[in-house]
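pasting for ref
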Amino acid sequence: MANSGTGEESNTDDQPQDIKQESILQEDSDEQSAVLQLMRITDFRYVFLANMMLFMAFQMRNVVQSWLALELTDSQAWVGVINGSPAIAIILLGLVGGVASDRWPKRDILLWVRLGLGLVNLVVGYLVVIDAISIWHLLFLSIAQGGAIAFGMPATQTIVQDIVGRRRLLSAVSLNQSLATVGGIAGPAAGGALLGVMGVAPVYFVITVIYVPVIYATWKIKTRTRTERLPGSNPLTDIKDALSYVKSSPPLRILVALNVLGLIAGFIFPIIPVYARDVLEVGESGFGILMASFGIGGFVGGLGLAFLGDVKHKGWLLILTVIIFDPVAILFGFSRDFYFSAVLLFLFGIAASFYISTVATLFQTYAPEHLRGKIMAVFGLTLQLFPLGWMLGGFTAEKFGAETALILGNGFSFIVIIVMFARSRSFRELR
């Protein structure tokens, strides 16, 4: 790995940057918590700031995009399609993005990706202003966002380890997830409130403005890392090697299977805006509060996991998430009380944060250095089955009802994962 700087603060400026980083990370945890150690690293702070604002923009976009799709079509199915459609591009281009992450500086990839994402939101806002927006425009631009995310996701995941190292990876991923979720708390609430006051187009312009500090923080990251290419390697052989390695690794196969089953967890999200409008009758602002409850849960879960540090029995932590979010999702389908629904989404957010942080850490832990970007692309690829669940969940809820969709989906997921855990030693011994 070749570094041109790691961006840490230190009084010993004559030391190489990588040595200064290592000295920070290896301080006695009794003297300083893992969180405080991580926050002393300048580049990590920039990553955290960018991700927090980016998550806010994503969540605001999810709120306004869901509402716009509902207004254009009055269909739960279309809400699911629009929110799940970026996954199509991510699945098609995800492995290419992983190759790019291992071959070019991750910071540069992130800079261009985030410029593109900001531009897409600007275009949607403009189309709404001139009254030219259609569901097909929204679908195309959603897929375009997915294409950008396909290149940004592996770089986003792997640049954290480049900055902090493996020893603090779980704490770093969890803290980053938790603090980024601050944006996820503000995003839905602000999105819902602004929708009620300003309408759709201004919200898209606000989202575009939020990308300004995201791009600035990304530009300020000094870490420039890329993986040294093995002799005779090329993009096609890199992808083949990554897939072969995942196939041969029992821990990675388990993680892929869990992400595939995570498709079911997405069933709940196209149901939320319809529940907010038609069942709970709380309108745009209430919808924003419900999504903010999910964000608060994500913040609490991620921050708690960050302070715990390196949890050794990560397989048991994963099964805990299943015990929480599948029953919670089913209960949500039967709720008719706004406050109870908000509590359920709060618990769902805790479980989701636990899951994403732990699985992301495990994928990197079990990946060899020269394949890390590609294997994180596999992680991102399989994780996109979650938004595909939005699409499937929307269609299922429209045809059979929300309660039936959640019972079938999350009930099936719960049973399969519990059986996997009971029968698989590799699952139980994930560390």
